[in-house]
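Let us practice reading a record.
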Amino acid sequence: MPDYDLDKLFRPRSIAVVGVSPDRPLIGTRTYRNLRRYGYPGVLYPINPRYETFDGDKCYPSLAALPEVPDFVFVAIPAARTPEVVEECAKLGVKAMEVASGGYSESGTEGAALEVRIRETAQKHGIALCGPNNIGYISAHEKTVSWPSPMPGAPKPGGIAVVTQSGSIGIVLAQDERKIGLAYLVSAGNETVLNAGDYLGYFATNPNVRVVLMFLETIRDPAKFARAADAARAAGKRVVVLKVGRSALGSRAVAAHTGAIAGEDALYDAFFARHGVMVVDELDQMLELAVLLDSYGSAPPNTNVVPVTLSGGEAALLADLSAKHGVELRDLVPE
């Protein structure tokens, strides 16, 4: 397997967006405008052979017509036409791209065949391909938002990276009402080339990242994921996973969503424990833990915990939770 240059993906100096239209709010159109809106500092190239300009910028008929080879190509055209664009990227020497459209392995045999084509081309030419069937990524420190969905404002740059195999969960976390501070947020989609282990490995060595949150339906390459988790632990970074598909019904939902197969619950838990990954059960817990871990680089030096509350009921609840989770509450001396 080739090594992929994820800097070209997350820190591109130039971006081409294939599939913009001044007449319709397509995925490519919204992504291009988000890049402009949130201050992308590099060069942008809109691609559509039917137009000469787009939002005041020169519009190019193809990638081959550009004055340079872009670092990153965002593809937002129907699945049936996408393999040709991936092949064009390979010929030009593009090293990072995203395929945002659906209609691949999650949709049946024809879509699966299209996905095999783009996978084989990307792997052969070392293209770091994000997706397909996803909504892109946010690179907050670099002001790069390969992201078609509306956002209330530019994300607050911080130390938390998010990898999600669910696009809608990515949209929720992109709102960031808690202002937790995002370094990166990537919607992985079908992971036909880059998978959760690739993203975790990149974040493990990234100086902007302190905590990695992962919403996972499956792990497609356990060995790669294990190496990345071990690297994150060695670098003092915390990894928090919310794994779905634990129930029989949830497992069927996962298969219908991205074509992934969820594994045995106990097997995943043992795997995560072995590699220092923290496991949570729901989104609120994941976000609260992210804030805690990002605020405190290490655990308190002692266990002398003294909760303070005005409520007798809350005092009882704190006592119960402390007993359940092994937190020792010390008696105070009368003074």
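A brief commentary: The mean pLDDT is 91.
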